[in-house]
Write a structure and sequence with these properties.
The chain is of the alpha/beta class. The chain is about 35% helix and about 20% strand.
Amino acid sequence: MLGKGLPENLAGFFAAVVVKVGTGQREGGFHGVGRRAGRHVTIVAYSVMVLRALEAAERLAAEGIEAEVIDLRTLKPYDAETVIASIRKTGRLLVVHEAPLLGGFGGELAARIAQSEAFAYLEAPIVRLGGADVPIPYHPRLERAAVPQVEDIVEAARRLARLEV
């Protein structure tokens, strides 16, 4: 049964929903990729980083910074249309993932955006926030230091929204 034994915040994340691969469209026509609307900065994430990005967006909203959070759901194919539409609206892109920056999917996403029509809409450099270039440690304190946390996302998005990059 969904939610049994899972932390409450993950139960919603892993909710049973049919998603058309690569479109972000849920069965019934609902566009489920855009998890939170915003106008100052686009945060693109996947997996557990979506939860952290949503929490960061709430904190940023208290400061008057409206962050749009895009949940990729699939990496290949990825929903370029939704990401580009968001960049067109915000002019800024923050890519967040757990993987190390070197060789992580965020680099590929940044390259694809730089080579697409979305590049013309960017008002600031693409910012990537990823894990440290170390093997992911097992101990919770060390893991926390090795992968982006909510505070890291807030700081990166704040700097990007204020054009301090």
